[in-house]
Amino acid sequence: MGKVKLNHAPPILMEARYIEEIRHLTYQQRFEKLIAIIELSCILKSAKKYSKSK
Description:
The chain has helices at about 10-25, 25-45. The chain has about 55 residues and is mostly helical. The radius of gyration is 17 Å and the shape is flat.
């Protein structure tokens, strides 16, 4: 099976692909990925929320 171009597949395949990708990362790369996720989470929490009810 060739490399999939899009990130769309059944959840079981996506999870397996993600786990395999993580196994190939170094600890430094894993840490950087975790920090990026935490930073994004903080940005989303502190972002102004807009509502359509104006």
